[in-house]
Amino acid sequence: MKDKPQNKGLTVNLVAIANHQSEKRKLKPFNELVQHFSDAQGRAALLGMLRGIEREALRIDESGYLALDGHPLELGSALTHSRITTDYSEALLEFITPVNNQVGPLLQGLTETHAFSVRHLHGQRLWPVSMPCYVKDEQNIPVARYGTSNTGKMKTLYRKGLTYRYGALMQIISGVHFNFSVSQELWQSLYELSDKSVSFEDFISESYFGLIRNYRRLVWVLPYLFGASPALCSSFIKGQKTDLRFEKSGRGTLYLPYATSLRMSDLGYTNKEQEDLNISYNSLPEYLAGVRAAIKMPSANFANIGVKVNGEYRQLNANVLQIENEFYSPIRAKRVTKSGEKPSEALARAGVEYIEVRALDVNPFSPIGIEENQVRFLDLFLLYCLLTESPKSDAAEEARLSANLKSVVLEGRKPGLELLTETGTRSLQTWLLDLFEHLDSLAKLLDGDKQDYQAALAHWREAVNDPQKTLSGQVIQQLITNGQDHGQWVMSLAQQYHQYFMDYPLSAEVVSDYQAEAQASLYKQADIEAAQSAVSFDDYLTDYFGTSS
C-alpha cells in the first residue's frame, strides 16, 4: 500500500496504551453497533474503507520454466516504481495498487498493471498459482537485484540471507496481500461510543489491534474459502523432508484430499526459528517490544551460516530476524514509513494506519489472482473483526489458534471437521454459518439499494454448504476429477491469461502513464545511487542497525 491512507500526523502515546487494557475499549454487541450505523451518515462512515492489493506472480518462459533473466527494463526500476516491483526473485513480479475506496476501480487498476506488464515480458507468461512448478535448479533461481546504491544492495543481501536460511524454493511461492483501513468518520463515531479513557489516536491503534486479535481467531476462514493450493508439482518437494502423506495424480501431481492451502503449511511460508518468539498482539507497545527483541535475538543456526565470509556477505546478521520484514505473520499492523524509517519506528511514531492481510493464495480462476467477491467478503470479514469485542489473548488461546489454522490448511474440506474452542470443539461448518449470519446484517447495511455485498456473501455461503465450491475444492476437481496434471493445467491457464492481457484494451493515456512512471523510476534509482556513492556499504549497515530502536 504505497499511498498514505489516513490518520495523518498522529502521535501515539505508548505508555498510555500500555496502561489501558483492551477491556477499556468495551464495544456494544455487534448487532447493536450495526444498528447504530444504519442511518445515512453511519453507512457512509462504514463505506469509507480504503483498500490496496499486492499480487505476486512468477515470470515463466513459454515452456513453463522459471525465467532466469533480469527484470524487464521497460517496467522501470524495481527499487523505486510504485506499482511494479519484485519480491524475492528477479522473476517474482509484484503488482501494487494505489489506495482506493472503490472496489471496481481498484481491480481495474490492478488489471491494467497486469496488461501493461505482460506486453513487455518478451513472450514470457505469468504463473497463475501460488506454488511454483518448473524450476530446473534451485541454485539458479535469481535473487532480486536493486542496483548499486546501498539501499538496493541491502535489499538484495536480505534476500540472499533468506536463501541461505530457508532455501530459494520457498521464497518463490506467490501470494496476494490485502491492505485495509477504515474512515476517519468511522473512527470518530466509534470513539464517541467509547469511554474515551485513551486519546483518539491511541484508541485507533488499540482498535486495530483488537481487529488483529479477532482476525487471528478466525483466520482459518480465509484458507477454507480462498485457499487454492491443495496440490503441487512433485518437483517442489524434491529433497525435502515432510510428514505429509500425499496422494499422487497424473505424471507428477501431489495433493492432500482435503487440503486448502499448502502455501500456508510447513511446506510454505513458515519459520521454525520464529515459533518461540511469542510476539504479542495485545497492544502496540507489547507488539513493538516483541519485534525489537526478535531483531536483536541471536540464532545459533543462522550464526553457523556466517555473516561475512571471505569478504562476502551472506546475510545481514545472524539474528532470528535480519530485519522486521522477515517476521512471517498472516496479518501485520502497518503505517506508511518516511524515508529511511523502519516499520516499527513508523508505528511507534504515529500508531497503526492500516492492516495487511497476508493469508491469501493466488486465485487461479482470476487473471489478476483475486476476484471482486473476495474483496467484498474481506471488507465484511474485517469490519466484523473490528466491530466485535476482542479480549486479550493468552498462550493457551494462541495454541488453539495455531492448531485450528493448521487443521484447516491441511484438511479444511474434511466432512465433520471440528475446531478447538475455549470450552471444547465446534464444527467448522456450524461456526461458519454463525459467522455468515453476522456478516449478512452488515452486508445488507452496506448495500443499501444494491446487492453487491449480499451477492458476494451468498456466493461464498455456497462454499460453506458444499466444500467443493471453495477455491481448493474447485482446484481438486480440475486436477483429480478431470484427470489433469497440475503443471499442464496451470500452463493452460497461463496461456489463457496471457492472451487475455494481450487483448485487454489499454487506452493511449494509460499506456503513456505507465511508460512515464517506468522512466521516472529509473531516473529516481540513478539519483539514489549517485547520492549514496560516497558511503561504504559496511558503514551503511553499521549505521542502519546502530540506529535501531
From TrEMBL:
The chain positions of domain Glutamate--cysteine ligase read 35-408
Name of the molecule in the record: Glutamate--cysteine ligase
Q: Which family does it belong to?
A: Belongs to the glutamate--cysteine ligase type 1 family. Type 1 subfamily.
Give the encoding gene's name. Answer: gshA
List the SUPFAM superfamilies.
Glutamine synthetase/guanido kinase
Q: Which transformation does this protein catalyse, written as a reaction?
A: L-cysteine + L-glutamate + ATP = gamma-L-glutamyl-L-cysteine + ADP + phosphate + H(+)
Stated EC number for the protein is 6.3.2.2
User: At the top level of its lineage, which domain of life is listed?
Assistant: Bacteria
Looking up InterPro entries in the UniProt record yields: Gln_synth/guanido_kin_cat_dom, Glu_cys_ligase, Glut_cys_ligase
Q: What pathway or pathways are given for this protein in its record?
A: Sulfur metabolism; glutathione biosynthesis; glutathione from L-cysteine and L-glutamate: step 1/2
- Keyword ATP-binding among UniProt keywords: yes
Q: Which PANTHER family match?
A: GLUTAMATE--CYSTEINE LIGASE
Q: What is the lineage of its organism?
A: Bacteria, Pseudomonadati, Pseudomonadota, Gammaproteobacteria, Alteromonadales
Q: Which UniProt keywords apply?
A: ATP-binding, Glutathione biosynthesis, Ligase, Nucleotide-binding
In the record, what terms sit under GO molecular function? glutamate-cysteine ligase activity
Uppermost EC category: ligase
